[in-house]
Amino acid sequence: MLTMTRGTMINASEFSEIRKELKESEEKRESVIRKSRDIIMLSKQIIYSAQRGDLKKAEDICGEIKKLVSGLPKEYCGTDMESVAVQEYVEAVCFFEFVKNKKLPSRKELGADTENYLLGLCDLTGELVRQAVNATINKRYDEALHIKDFVSEIYGEFLQFDLRGGQLRNKADSIKWNLKKLEDLALTISVKHTMED
To answer: Which of 119, 126, 135, 162 could be bridged to 143 by S-S, CB 3.0 to 4.6 A?
Structure first.
């Protein structure tokens, strides 16, 4: 007759270690979500300040936001919030740099990965349409036409990519429609100038 010795068949320390790992992972995830929300909020403030010509305030926030972005973990943390945050950051800082210096920062300057950089540029073109409309309303026609040329250059670069579906492919299509809006705006400006002459 077999005698069973009662004892634990589970390694309790293994499960203790797992609980610790899960807790740390969840804390890291929550931290990323909090930082991402802060980045998104600051991105909106940069655009808002730059739109109103308060470039000093926008520049100060750019310094603050870059520190937050550099503190995001490089590995996936169970949330897509950090990806959205980086895209918003790219859009905001690129908008500020265009308004202030008429230039487009590189991925390296922004510390952004390729996909989020490109997705941010897609969003940037929508913000530039709004800027061009405001410029036209305020009779800053040269600014509106310069924005049209800038978006046209971005579109030209995107046409040379072989995008095969996914979020980037869908968002890249928005550049074409934003450029069309800017071309229509440029035509309106041209007609207005002709009528004034």
So the answer is: 135
Task: State how far the Cα of 88 lies from the Cα of 104, in Å rounded to an integer.
Answer: 15
CB neighbour list of residue 95: distance below 8 Å, 6 or more residues apart: 46, 47, 50, 124, 127, 128, 131
- Kindly list the distances between the CA atom of residue 24 and the CA atoms of 20, 29, 35, 178, in Å, as whole numbers in the listed order: 6, 9, 16, 43
**Domains of the chain, CATH where assigned:** 25-104 (1.20.58.2140), 113-197 (1.20.58.200)
- Written as six digits, the tokens of 75 are 């590995």
Structure tokens at 141: 């026609």
Q: What are phi and psi of 140, to 5 degrees?
A: -95, 70
Q: How far apart are CA 26 and CA 4, in angstroms?
A: 40
Helix (H) or strand (E) holding 125: helix 114-137
61-70 tens-digit pLDDT:
999 999 999 8
Encode burial over 30-56: b for 16+ CB neighbours within 10 A, e otherwise: eebbebbeebbebbebbbebbbeeeee
Question: 158 with 174: CB under 8 angstroms?
Answer: no
Q: What is the pLDDT of residues 81-116, one digit of tens each?
A: 889 999 999 999 999 999 999 999 999 999 999 999
DSSP code at position 80: S
| Residue 59 CB neighbour total at 10 angstroms | 15
